[in-house]
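Hi R.,

Here are the chain sequences for the assembly we discussed:
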Amino acid sequence: MVSSDLDARLSEPVGGHSLDVQGFEQPRALMSAIHEDLAPLLDLAHRPVVSARQFEREQLVQLCRLAARYETQPQMINRPLTGKIMISAFYEPSTRTRLSFESAWHRLGGDVMSITDPLSTGIAKGESLFDVAEMMNHYGDLVVLRDANDRSVYDMLDALRIPIVNGGNGLDEHPTQALADIYAILKWRPALLYPDGCAPVRIGVIGVPERMRTVRSLLIFLAGFAENIRELVVVSDEDEPFSEGQREELEKAGLALRVTDDLDAVLPTLDVVYINAIAWRGDDYESMGTRYRLTAASPLDPKAIILHPLARGKELDRDLDDTSHNWYFAQARGAVFVRMALLSAMLKSYV
Amino acid sequence: MVSSDLDARLSEPVGGHSLDVQGFEQPRALMSAIHEDLAPLLDLAHRPVVSARQFEREQLVQLCRLAARYETQPQMINRPLTGKIMISAFYEPSTRTRLSFESAWHRLGGDVMSITDPLSTGIAKGESLFDVAEMMNHYGDLVVLRDANDRSVYDMLDALRIPIVNGGNGLDEHPTQALADIYAILKWRPALLYPDGCAPVRIGVIGVPERMRTVRSLLIFLAGFAENIRELVVVSDEDEPFSEGQREELEKAGLALRVTDDLDAVLPTLDVVYINAIAWRGDDYESMGTRYRLTAASPLDPKAIILHPLARGKELDRDLDDTSHNWYFAQARGAVFVRMALLSAMLKSYV
Amino acid sequence: MVSSDLDARLSEPVGGHSLDVQGFEQPRALMSAIHEDLAPLLDLAHRPVVSARQFEREQLVQLCRLAARYETQPQMINRPLTGKIMISAFYEPSTRTRLSFESAWHRLGGDVMSITDPLSTGIAKGESLFDVAEMMNHYGDLVVLRDANDRSVYDMLDALRIPIVNGGNGLDEHPTQALADIYAILKWRPALLYPDGCAPVRIGVIGVPERMRTVRSLLIFLAGFAENIRELVVVSDEDEPFSEGQREELEKAGLALRVTDDLDAVLPTLDVVYINAIAWRGDDYESMGTRYRLTAASPLDPKAIILHPLARGKELDRDLDDTSHNWYFAQARGAVFVRMALLSAMLKSYV
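And here is the predicted structure of the full complex:
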């Protein structure tokens, strides 16, 4: 055959260079730390999932345990959602969230019908979401909705008799991304589960809790673990990065909050750094710019971990990818398993 | 966790407020009224379905019986289309019809490949539908086509060796929507099946039979039940709302037709009111405006039922949703089961 | 029911008019000509497939044999890819290639997640392909990528730990289309497999090898059968239709190359005529115009076969479809089976 200097990457099997944090060790440790109890998950059956506020702490914990079980047994032995149909309605562009939901559903054995382009739908002809939801009752078994309008999920809820999952509603919430975040944090330090289980940690969030839906949902979840969180530091150059009542609600729940605009000063003191550069302004995205940026040269505590919901922009340098700070890839990996756990609970269909 | 005034809809399972007409009672009554006989359906095997004219009355009746059987046994016990692939080609925007076909196919166990955006296809490079169809012969087991050009389905037919279903071709026909309509009507009054089975009914159609494809197909089907239809009243402000030869064809088949522009005068006399505000003008949609509108205040006979193929605009007020006139949601629900029945017959694969 | 002059095509089952070359005879003859040996395919397991250069001749031969086996047993008896997910990422418009990959995967029992619109993805928000690939590691088991940028597949390769198949990268390569081409050629004349197996053939390629990715990949494959190819004639009105080093590489591998701009003069001497009118100019398509055109009136050798990767434009007249020159439909049909064979090998999952 034709000879050539064939690229070395083409001449051998893929794989082999994954980080340790993507292996089985972390989820196994988390499984060991939690006594399995599916009872709290029964309350999630056939319920809509719209807000992080709906979850009891014990539900979070058991969802994470179930996710860990799925993560450590990638070869499923049965397909409990065979014959069930997910309607994956992404009226706002997305690949990551859509694919992770669809992947989770497929791995449980179900079929998927996708709506990826609002212009291809009856909504382009002026159809109301109420009517769309009424239709979906008959055509599927569960709906995942992403929409730039934060009210859309509630409009559909009025008509739905099948469960819906909020896959991001405007600037309001993104509870399943926050589930993936919590799952990553608990895999990193299972001792957070127990009173005095570990030295209290300091968590930094770079961004604007007022307008970042993933952060909004995550802070609600973190409040459930306040006893082991020494401080939650918001890094922002806005004077008041919280929405009305948000700060009060979180402090009442026990979180010690602080706001600073000096990233480099606070960075060495943080155990977990959560960064996200996408926020909402009006009804569209805005990038937070590159005032706050993490690179391998940033003054991070050597043991600190970085989380990022991805997709990333310039705020998170790729030179961090090969460092032990990189937990954002593990976080992305866990997103599938934690969604499998949630969908299992919602349909009472466990592997 | 964080406390809040959690929306009551989030704290309990979904479901529970469906109308009676969406339960099992109506399809069970229809099943009882029809002696099962799959023989007429054998002629549908491996045949294209393009026009309502292709169906014999007994085929319609047996398809509706099979749909009723599927509707009353939502938990399928086998998946006869396992390994079969539907190509769902919607070159004209749609959600409702596409999802109902895909849902029907999935529930029978098959896989689906969707084309939702003409711009993503080779047709954007100038490929002919003849060549597309030749390709589909090898890649799938059945094609569903929606296209704004009424000739497209015939162009593909020249090359296809697998069955095709017309999912709406321009202003011409939409036979499977009409199947869903007939299924709803027969569930409402099974006695229409028999000579002198009931007092003859008066059916009103608000719209323009010339340019509404769902109406065009439905009228052809209704002609098969002319003996129990006292009168078919078309409500329109056009002098001649029929296309050339359409009126003659229907009258020859036995339908007593009347045209009026006075909705309120005729409304109290109607047993069934079919309304649709979307018609074709040239190669695009037009809304029929709001001259004719149904609301809870309309002078409907108390026992009259309303049908609408959906999606709706202002012509059908949501205040009718919770009344007993609302059969349009049941009609939408039935659309999946009647398509399952049709697809079963076309592939000779019954559950 | 309503009477009408029902189109004759609607009143009988589809099918029945396929060409002989689409039957079982050709693949059965190819199977007989090759001794089955899956060993060469083991090297394809879990490897990326980006370039035609990666394939050893014996791998090509065994892939074609496996494809022939699949083609002759359309009813699969098991579904080895059950639970496996293909991510079908077509950032450049395509129907044919996308559907043939998805069909192949479904027929092996797997599930598919499609990306058909770049604007619906995180890439529209500026996400890098490296990050997209990292995500895909966790959400799927294999990626098919088509992208107008020839570097994209390599960018993803840096992050991928699951196999990727190049479904067309800019003007560079399209190796699986070339597999379908070779499969068609070997079905036509299995004797090409053996030294002095047949009189050497003359193959004509109408087009520009520099800028036609399907041709670029095919020529590399054909070099593996140079001993039975008397001459490879490129028909082009460009003085130098090869890219830098391309001609030298092919000649070194044994192909006897000639360039001519006179189609009619060379046509009577050709055994195989490969035509394609789509080439790349900059980062978009260009049509090669209609200077070179094949019709039933072209001076073809009576036994010559025509191949075309489709979709076609005016360069290939439909009046050839019903002649014995038409092997392009068989070529399109084989594309599914040869992709099934490749995917089987890559995932070590044979039917």
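The two ends of chain A are 48 Å apart (CA to CA). Residues 44 and 345 of chain A are 6 Å apart (CA to CA).

Let me know if anything looks off.

Best,
T.
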